[in-house]
Amino acid sequence: MTQELLMLLKQIGRGNLAVGRIYEGHINTLQLIQTFGTKEQIATSAADARDRHKIFGVWNAEAADGVKIMPLEDGKYRLEGCKTFCSGSGYVERPFVNGVLPDGTWQMCIVPMDEVATVSDPSWWEPSGMRATASYKVDFSGVELHQNALIGEPGDYYRQPWLSVGVIRFAAVQLGGAEALFDFTREYLQKLNYTNDPYQRERLGRMAIAIENGNLWLRSAADMVAAYAPVFGGYPTVDNPQANQLVAYANMVRTAIEQICMTSMQICERSVGTRGLLPPNPMERIIRDLTLYLRQPAFDAALSSVGQYVLAESNPARSLWYEY
Fold this sequence. Notes:
The chain is mostly helical and 324 residues long. The protein is built from nine helices and eleven strands.
């Protein structure tokens, strides 16, 4: 199942990285609800997605004016504050809008956007790439939620391996963008009859190797997730001794695919030159979108976690992840 999901995400990213970003957030939210939600919450969310075509998303980023969740006397909760990078603003109707409880813990909750009043700030989002994601700043002050809008226990959002292993999803979308660049670069060179140029052949050869490396990483990541547990990330009530290994491997996948995408962009730019990077050529848009999308948070910490894991192990390199 994970293999099929990653291939789907990659294919969507190949078509449009902004759409891939929104869909990846949709999947992320539904997987979190399936993992930490009650049976009733899982059933309600499934019906919303399947029958009412509601789009889900994760709006977790915030600045100094972040969201606070205040308990009320009648058993409800009131939100105060804003979220940033709210991808799909105006379209996502069931976002995770996580916030701080009075005791300082972090609580997941679902906000039914079609039932509450919020204020969006489109002027906050004026990037060079991924503009179509409509990742606005949204003010949730005054929104009131019922108890059943709270998902899981405080702190569940940051539990491992769910928090880190999910990076393989956005890595799949990003690799789709790199694949699109490969296809457009090759098509451009073929139309100009540059296929006999030895330097262009060398560039496209390196690009093909990079793309195939990415696909191998995704396939291996899917195998690791499938071997770990029958459901994505395992069961919250069951400790798994392989959790640290899975987190480290997912962070390797993220790191490797980021480099693959950067290499693909560089080769594309050198292959097609200035003329091939002018609008409305699609390569120009893909490079802008992918450059921004690759800037996911905590890159250094993710890579450091790989080093931390391998330094704590004594297995030889051939059996750190699999037994060869």
